[in-house]
Amino acid sequence: MTIPAVMPTYARADLAFDRGEGAYLIDTAGRRYLDFASGIAVTLLGHAHPHLNKALQDQAGKIWHTSNVVRVPAQERLAERLVANSFADTVFFTNSGVEAWECGTKLVRKYHDATGQPDRWRIITVGGAFHGRTMTAISAAKSEKLVDGFGPLVDGFDQVAWGNLNELRAAVTDETAAICVEPIQGEGGIRPAALDYLRALRTVADEFGLLLYFDEIQCGMGRTGKLFAHEWAGVTPDVMCLAKGIGGGFPLGACLATGQAAMGMTPGTHGTTYGGNPLATAVGNAVLDVLLEPGFLERVEAVGAFLWERLDALVRRYPRSLLELRGAGLMLGLRPTRPSGEVIGELRAEGLHTVPASDNIVRLLPPLIIGEAEALEALAILDRVFGRLEAEAAKPKVAAEVSDA
């Protein structure tokens, strides 16, 4: 059996990008694409952002890596700034989202052990969740496409239906330690949780002595127009994991927690070789510089509202080819009547780069730096493609000829 040098675990598009400029990508043939994928919500500030470039270049000329056996000043500064702008008291830095999620999972168990309740170790998760692709993370999500062939799964996760508070309450046992939910499901189909549901999760957690754990790997870091998506509900978790946009394209993740929740995390309980190294946290600080500029998040909210209004009109204009608009801020999804992969191919042919999600969703995840001009350009492409699909769907079906021959 022959196998490519790069392990074939991705169904890759036959497309390679050579460089990027702001909200645009340029492929190896020189063609420009408007980037409404952002490396799956990663390149938060677009491509070749001058402030990020300078931060990385300046740090690269000083020191790349020391490990966490010594202090890392840029890491300390980034942690202090995240604490100052969130519910948290402390931060652990990782290289990726699933590592940040795993840290939070360990933290949950360690908290209950430290408070004399080691039998509380199970975590309630919800249908449609995606927390990453480690054995623990796929065991938590339980999606068939993630777990097929990788059994037996890791025990410790009890899944309930998304948004069903009655089922969630019934799932709480003496072994339950936490509730883990994405305020907006990304891979699960751009599904925002109802704000009242998020508020109720906090109530349930408090009632049963559980930790509330939010996964904001995709929906956090300004994508909804607030720094963190849960802020719209006016509730705070005990634990939260971040990644994707936090490094603007440089691998970086973070697990944030209250001091109470992290009380069991003492020297030797957790670690990482690369997590939070000087290069990564220099870029993370540069990303935060931009996100915290006065008016930046308000502009994200305004552009998101502008896009929503016009995308909603598009859905109403083309009912045969578009079923639904979902999401919040600049984390949006369209559900077409045709397979999303086909629609993404048509959009790409017109110069708009997007990515799919579950439930046949076309994800729209532009960099947060876009303005109305880029939004209008994307809308024009979407209008052309769905206008064409609508016309095809409206054509009368030709009955197949039946022959007795």
> Could you tell me the number of beta strands?
17
**Shape field:** globular
Overall mean pLDDT: 96
For the biggest β-sheet, the strand order reads 4-12-11-10-7-5-6
Characterize the biggest β-sheet.
7 strands, mixed
Fraction of residues in helices? 25-40%
Flag low-confidence runs.
400-405
End-to-end Cα distance: 45 Å
What is the string of helix and strand elements?
EEEHHHEHEHHEHEEEHEEEHHEEHEEEH
**Beta-strand residue fraction:** 15-25%
Structural class: alpha/beta
CATH topology annotation of the largest domain: Aspartate Aminotransferase, domain 2
Count of alpha and pi helical runs = 12
CATH architecture of the largest domain: 3-Layer(aba) Sandwich
In CATH terms, the superfamily of the largest domain is Type I PLP-dependent aspartate aminotransferase-like (Major domain)
Output the CATH class name of the largest domain.
Alpha Beta
What is the domain total for the residues? 2
What would you note in describing this structure?
Helices cover 36% and strands 18% of the residues. It has helices at residues 38-41, 50-60, 73-84, 97-114, 135-141, 144-147, 165-171, 195-208, 278-291, 296-317, 340-349, 372-394, and strands at residues 17-21, 24-27, 32-35, 90-94, 122-126, 157-160, 176-181, 184-185, 191-192, 211-215, 239-242, 253-257, 322-328, 331-336, 352-353, 355-357, 361-364. The termini are far apart. Strand 16 (355-357) and strand 17 (361-364) form a beta hairpin. Residues 400-405 have low confidence and may be disordered. The chain is globular, with a radius of gyration of 22 Å. The protein has a 7-stranded mixed beta sheet with strand order 4-12-11-10-7-5-6, sandwiched between helices. Strands 1-2-3-15 form a 4-stranded mixed beta sheet. A 4-stranded antiparallel beta sheet has the order 13-14-17-16, with helices on one face. It is built from 12 helices and 17 strands. It folds into 2 domains: 17-49 and 295-394, Aspartate Aminotransferase, domain 1; 63-291, 3-Layer(aba) Sandwich (Aspartate Aminotransferase, domain 2), CATH 3.40.640.10. Helix 2 (50-60) runs antiparallel to helix 9 (278-291), helix 3 (73-84) runs parallel beside helix 9 (278-291) and helix 10 runs parallel beside helix 12. The chain is α/β, with parallel strands linked by helices and 405 residues long.
